[in-house]
């Protein structure tokens, strides 16, 4: 079996379907260029028939991208397929991705078509797409609720029609990993000439299992995964590209395949997509969340400082973070405090000094959620500056800020019993003080 896993990124198409995540043509182009740097194999740039703007964006991306395949989605009808074909025409490598629903509920309630009509429409769409490119993908929408015998029939017909990639989508996020892996295995075993195509999966996250389902499909023969940056997408989103890639990379002993993704570009790509779409990344999001490589527990911090692999299965640098992050808080230990002080250029001369600083640190950490570097420097300066602290005291501070007037501050300090007064204006009361 091929040990190469194709990464099909649909951030610009399915990701844009996240409510409020619509992107301009220029924003799509910026993301597409970053996806190319990331090393994705296929960029689904949009849905050409959806709007003239989408078609224009796909054409511009097709002209700009040289090292990835650019793809347009199309329903299984002539208008959509021709719009997609024209949009990808400038691409160095172009693909048309056509689809039609195959589940009983979709065929009856949405399409109002009989199964024979669905097969006929799918075959016709694939043959029409071949007029524009030999790289044609077909998706059986709502495959999760489709009858396995009918899926086999559809896929056999489309292999004969010339499709190169067959995608099995969990369109509504209904499946569970064991079931989804078994469905992929059965399709590959039962469909004639299954070895002539790449089998793909596209999973939604309605039950929180999009990544798990996608990986189950990979373990059972899928060699393309359709995913998005940060898991963006319709409703609860899609399988997260970063989680798929790093799971396969970290556990190659399990999955037996790898990607051509430059993992160091994962975090920069995540940040760009978050910035453009306005969708923040939750702090505890795997791989790209702010806390993904953060350690606050003293036991964890001590272990990581002694040997990173005690609590980290990946290196932060490998996915684009500068380094792992030891968040200092009330659960942190002495070793973490010592290490951070050394990074700040402070070396305590004895264990007693460290213990004293650690006691003050714990007292402060109980009062505030995050302890910053400035706090640490102030804590360790206490012993060295006790005389200075006794010498200088704040006697009084008065600030005045009112509409139409420049903010003003008056301060009185005591220097060894001698009072020093000062007045100053500023851009605000804090600035004045």
Please provide a written account of the structure.
Helices cover 42% and strands 18% of the residues. With 433 residues, the chain is α/β, with parallel strands linked by helices. Helix 5 (115-129) runs parallel beside helix 6 and helix 7 runs parallel beside helix 8 (210-219). The N and C termini lie far apart (70 Å).
Brief summary of the model shown:
By secondary structure, the chain is α/β, with parallel strands linked by helices. Helix content is about 40%, strand content about 20%.
Looking at this protein, list some descriptive labels.
13 strands, elongated, alpha/beta, three-stranded antiparallel sheet, 433 residues
Number of H- or I-type helical stretches:
17
The beta-strand count equals 13
N-C termini distance: 70 Å
Mean pLDDT over the full residue set: 88
Strand content: 15-25%
User: Could you give the order of strands across the largest sheet?
Assistant: 1-2-3-4-5-6-7-8
Q: What is the string of SSEs from the N terminus onward?
A: EHEHEHEHHEHEHEHEHHHEHEHHHHEEEH
Quaternary structure:
single chain
Largest sheet composition? 8 strands, parallel, barrel
Q: Shape from CA axes?
A: elongated
What structural class results from the helix and strand content? alpha/beta
Rounded radius of gyration (Å): 29 Å
Helix-residue proportion: 40-55%
- Please mark out the parts with pLDDT under 50 across 5 or more consecutive residues, or reply none: 384-388
């Amino acid at each position: 079996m091929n040990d190469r896993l194709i990464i099909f990124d649909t951030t610009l198409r399915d990701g844009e379907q996240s409510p409020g995540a619509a992107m301009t043509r220029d924003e799509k182009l910026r993301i597409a260029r970053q996806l190319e740097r990331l090393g994705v194999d296929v960029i689904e740039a949009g849905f050409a028939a959806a709007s003239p703007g989408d078609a224009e964006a796909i054409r511009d991306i097709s002209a700009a991208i040289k090292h990835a395949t650019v793809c347009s989605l199309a329903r299984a009808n002539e208008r959509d397929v021709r719009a997609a074909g024209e949009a990808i025409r400038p691409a160095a490598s172009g693909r048309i991705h056509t689809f039609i629903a195959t589940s009983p509920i979709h065929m009856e309630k949405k399409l109002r078509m009989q199964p024979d009509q669905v097969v006929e429409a799918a075959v016709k769409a694939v043959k029409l797409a071949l007029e524009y490119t030999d790289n044609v993908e077909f998706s059986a929408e709502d495959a999760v609720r489709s009858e396995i015998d009918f899926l086999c029939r559809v896929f056999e017909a489309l292999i004969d029609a010339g499709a190169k990639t067959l995608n099995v989508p969990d369109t509504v996020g209904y499946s569970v990993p064991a079931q989804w892996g078994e469905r992929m295995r059965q399709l590959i075993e039962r469909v004639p000439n299954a070895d002539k195509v790449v089998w793909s999966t596209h999973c939604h996250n309605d039950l929180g299992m999009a990544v798990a389902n996608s990986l189950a499909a990979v373990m059972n023969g899928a060699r393309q995964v359709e995913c998005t940056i940060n898991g963006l997408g319709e409703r609860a989103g899609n399988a997260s590209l970063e989680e798929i890639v790093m799971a396969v990379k970290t556990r190659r002993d399990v999955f037996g395949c790898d990607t051509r993704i430059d993992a160091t570009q994962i975090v920069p790509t995540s940040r760009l997509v978050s910035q453009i779409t306005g969708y923040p990344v939750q702090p505890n999001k795997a791989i790209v969340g702010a806390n993904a490589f953060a350690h606050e527990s003293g036991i964890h911090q001590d272990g990581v400082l002694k040997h990173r692999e005690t609590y980290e299965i990946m290196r932060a640098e490998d996915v684009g973070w500068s380094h792992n992050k030891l968040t200092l808080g009330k659960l942190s230990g002495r070793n973490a405090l010592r290490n951070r002080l050394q990074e700040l250029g402070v070396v305590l001369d004895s264990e007693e000094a460290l213990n004293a600083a650690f006691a003050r640190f714990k007292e402060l950490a109980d009062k505030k959620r995050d302890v910053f570097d400035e706090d640490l420097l102030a804590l360790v300066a206490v012993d060295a500056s006790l005389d200075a602290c006794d010498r200088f005291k704040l006697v009084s501070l008065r600030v005045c800020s009112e509409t139409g007037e420049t903010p003003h501050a008056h301060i009185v300090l005591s220097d060894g019993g001698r009072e020093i007064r000062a007045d100053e204006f500023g851009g605000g009361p804090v600035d004045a003080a």
